[in-house]
Write a structure and sequence with these properties.
Blueprint (H helix, E strand, L loop, with lengths): L1 H14 L1 H26 L9 H33 L1 H9 L4 H41 L15 H25 L5 H7 L10 H21 L3 H36 L1 H4 L2 H43 L1 H8 L4 E5 L9 H14 L3 E17 L2 E4 L2 H5 L7 E8 L12 E4 L5 H5 L5 E4 L16 E7 L2 H11 L11 E9 L4 H7 L1 H4 L7 E5 H54 L4 H39 L6 H36 L1
Parallel strand pairs: 4-7, 5-6
Antiparallel strand pairs: 1-8, 1-9, 2-3, 2-4, 2-8, 5-7
Helix pairs in contact: 1-2, 1-5, 2-3, 2-5, 2-6, 2-19, 3-6, 3-19, 4-7, 5-6, 8-9, 8-20, 9-11, 9-20, 11-19, 11-20, 11-21, 12-19, 19-20, 19-21, 20-21
Amino acid sequence: MKSLYSRLALAGIKRNKKVFMPFIGTIIFLIVLSSICLSLVLDKSLAGAKGMETMKSILFFGVIVLSIFSLIMLSSVYSFIQKRKLKEQGLYLILGLEKTHLRVILFWEIIYIIIFAILIASIFSLALYKLSLGIFLMLTNNSINIFEGGFFNNILAVAIVDLIFIAILIFVFVIQIIKMRNYSPIALVNESKAGDRKNKFTKLIALLGIIFIAGGYAISLTTKNPVQAFFKFFIAATLVIIGTYFAFSTIVTLFLELLKNNRALYYKKGNFLSVSGLLYRVNNNSRSLANIAILSTAFTIVLTSGISLYAGIGDATNRLFPAPYAIRTEAGSLSIKNLEKYRNNIRSLLADNKIEGEVTTTYEWSIPLVREKNKLKVMAKREWTNANLKNDIISLDIIYSPDAKLDFKGKDLIYFKEDNNEEFIKTLGFSARQVSNETIDIPLESVQTIFEKNKILAKDYETANKICDKLNFKGNRSKLSPNITSLIKGNLPKDFNNLLNEHKNDIKVNPNQKLTIIDRQQTKEEFLSDYGVIFFVGIILSLAFLITMGLAIYYKFLTEAYEDVERFKILRKLGLDEIDGKKIIRKQMAWLLFLPIVFCFIHTSFALPVLQKFLMLIGLMNTKLFIKSMIFVFLIYIIFYLVIYKFTEKIYTKIVLEK
C-alpha cells in the first residue's frame, strides 16, 4: 500500500504541475539565496577580509530574514496548492479512502517536494557559490583567492540551509494536516471552490486598517530626528503592512463601486464584465492582492536603499572629509595658544618635502540638546546619562574656522535654519545671521554621528567659547573642549599618508597631543566594505521579494482562471466570441494588476521621508541620488511586472477560453 500512496502522490504532482513546478522552483531559488549568504558567513578564506566581523553580522541577519520570509511565503503558497487539490481529495474519500490515507499521500507529496527541491538547490548552491563570492568581493572591495579553501568549501553551509528548509516544509505540511482534520468529503469539494470568507466585522477591520495606514504615514511624515527614524521606520512599516491587509478589500471595493456608479463607463460590454468580475474577486481574494502590494513595496524600498547607499559612497566620504587628508586632534589636547605653532609644523613638513599644499583648521564643539514639545532645551547631566536612542536628542555643533572667509555682516554668529531652532538661537543672547543653504566651504558634515545636526558658525574663538559655557549641560562642571580638524589640500604625493605617519611626532606641539591621520581614500575603501555588504544583502532580499511577488501574481491569476472557467462558458453560450473574451480578460487583468501597483507607489512615496532620515544614520545625505535610485528601481519593478502580466495573461486565456 505504501507504494500505492507514493505513486498517487507523484501522479498528483505531475497532474498539477502548473501549481507545483513554480512552488518547487521558488523553494530552490530561496535555498540558493540563503546558502550563498550563509556560505559567506562560514567561509574561512574570508577571515582576513576588511571588516569581516561586520560583514558576518549583516549576512547572518540576511539569512534569518530570508528564513522567516520563506516560512511565511511557502506556507501561503502551499495552502493555495492544497486548496486546488481539495476536490481531488474529497473524491478520494468518496471512493473509500480514509483521512489517514490522505495524510500518507500528503506525506509522500512533501517528501517528493523536499527531494526535488533540496537536490537541485544543493547542486546550484555549490556550483554558483564561487561566482557569488567573486561578485561579493568586487562589491566590498576585497581581494583574496576565491579558490583558496577549495572549489566546494561551502558544503556545511548548504547542508545547514537544507535542514532549515526541510524543517519549514515539514511545518507547512503539519499545518495543512491540521487544517483538513475536520473536513468531510463534501466539505472538501465545496472548500475548493470557496474564496476568502467574509468577516462579520468587515467595517470595523477596514476602519482599523485605514487608521493603521494613516498612522504609519503620519509617523513617516513627522519624524525629524534620524536617530528616532531607526525605530520609527519599522513601527511605520509594521502599521502599514497590517493596515494594508485589513483595509485592502474595502478601499479597492470602494474604488470599484465608484467606477460602477459612473454609468457612462460601467455600461459598456468590456467594462461591465471586468468591473463586476473584479468586485467579486476583491471581496474573495483580497489577501493575495495585499500580498502583492506588500511584496512590491518591500522590493522597491530594499533595493532603493541598497543602490543609493552604495552609489553614494563617494558623496558620503567627500562630505565627511572635504580634503584628501585630515589630521584630527582630540578634544582638550591642543590649546588655542598653540594652534599657530601646530599649523606651522604641518606647513614646515610640506615645505621640507617640497609639497605644494594648503592647511585649513576647524574647531568643533558638540553640545547635546533635547527637544521637548518641539522646542530645544539644554540637557541636565542626569538626562544625558540616562539618554538612549529613543530620546529626541539633538547635537548642536558650534564651529569656528580661522581660515574660512565668512561674511557675518556684523553679527556674532551664523546659523543654519532647522526645524523650530530660531527661537532657541534668540535665547543665546548673541546677534545672529540666518542662512538657508550650507554653501560655506568648511567641513560641516559628520555622517558618522548618530545625532541630528544643528550648526552655529562663530565669528571668533571667544564667541564660540561663551556659547559653549552657556549651553554646557546642567550639572557638568568640566569645560567643554573642541575637536580640532586640520585639512590638507593641494598637489599631494601618493605616499603622503606614510609621510604624515613617519613625522607624526614632529607635527605635535606637545607629547600629550593626540593625533589621528585620516586618509579619505582609505576611508572610502572601508565604506565600500561595509556598504558593499549591505548592498549585496539588499540585492539578495530584493530578488527574494521580486520572485515571490511574481509567484503571488502567477497563483493569483491561476486561481482566477480556474474560477472563471464556468462563467466564461456561460458567456460564450450567450454570444461572447473569442476576440471579445480576450479583450475582457486583458482589461480585467490590467485593472487587477493596477491596484497593487498603486498601493506600492503610495506606500513607497510616504516611506520616503522616514527612510531618508534612517539612511542618514549610515551616511546617505544625498537626497537627489536617493530619488534617482528610487526611479530606477520603479522602472525595474514595472518592467518585471509587465513581463509577469503577459506571461500570466497567456496562461489565464488558455485555461478560460480553451476549456
